[in-house]
Amino acid sequence: MALIIDHVTKRFGEFTAVDQLNLRIPKEEIFGFLGGNGAGKTTTFRMLLGLLDKTEGKITWNGKAIDYETSNLIGYLPEERGLYPKLTVKNQLVYLARLRGMEKKAILQELEKWLERFKVPEYMNKKIEELSKGNQQKIQFISAVIHRPELLILDEPFSGLDPINVEMLKEAVLDLKEQGTTIVFSSHQMSHVEELCQFLCILQKGRPVVQGSLREIKRSFGKKNLRIHGD
Ligand code: ATP
Asked: Which residues form the ABC transporter domain (predicted)?
């Protein structure tokens, strides 16, 4: 098991946002966190990334705590997208990827490849503010994967995207898995999880109510009972 979440709890004052989460996430698989608004998905991701202190519990990636040293092995697409509107796509990505320790030449090569793949090579010199929200999201996805992380964390990657862009991003996620990336993503929609994941956890009010392999869960509960509000 690559990612181990061991009895993790997060309290904000009296309020418990994540309650005794205990998960084993296998390497080179896609793992889905399914849950409605306020279920605790983003809070879990922030703890995974070390952006938020845990109240209790332990998280390890390949047996090591995730800290400053290991954080470069991780890619993150945050729920609140954060790009600099006045920068060009090229300058934005060069800026962000250099923080990850990449050389400019390698950044530009990777960026070119991704823009081709997303069928928007002409965006290289466009300003972020000139792009639609969906296209900004694709740029943010590129910034999460450009340094070829071992572990990729995607917070609601498909929200706000049109069906064509959803498909494009799903294909990219599946290819990254084939290349050996471990991927954890959150969604409100069972359909996304069913299509991509081998393993999943359904969170409700910070508690894992169902977890395991998709095949076993479907066998035990039947598809109908797995519908989440909004799906
Ligand atoms: P969504 O799908 O709406 O993004 P989520 O599953 O990602 O939901 P979280 O953002 O993790 O949910 O929030 C879980 C709960 O913790 C919510 O009730 C939220 O209001 C609360 N919460 C999150 N961050 C804080 C904070 N910094 N202080 C207090 N409460 C917080």
From this structure: 3-230
Say if strands 74-77 and 151-154 run parallel, antiparallel, or are unpaired: parallel
Query: What is the DSSP secondary structure assignment for residue 83, as one 8-state letter?
Result: -
CA distance 83 to 23: 32
For residue 37, give the ligand 1 atom closest to its CA: 3
In angstroms, what CA-CA distances link 102 with 108, 153, 161, 172, 200?
10, 20, 29, 21, 32
pLDDT tens track for 160-219: 899 999 999 999 999 999 999 999 999 998 889 889 999 999 999 999 999 999 888 888
Is the distance from the beta carbon of residue 187 to the nearest atom of ligand 1 less than 6 Å? no
Q: What was the ipTM of the complex prediction? A: 0.96
Give the Å distance between the CA of 122 and the centre of ligand 1: 37
Whole-model pTM? Answer: 0.91
Strand partners, 31: 184, 199
Return the sign of the alpha-carbon dihedral for residues 110, 111, 115, 118. positive
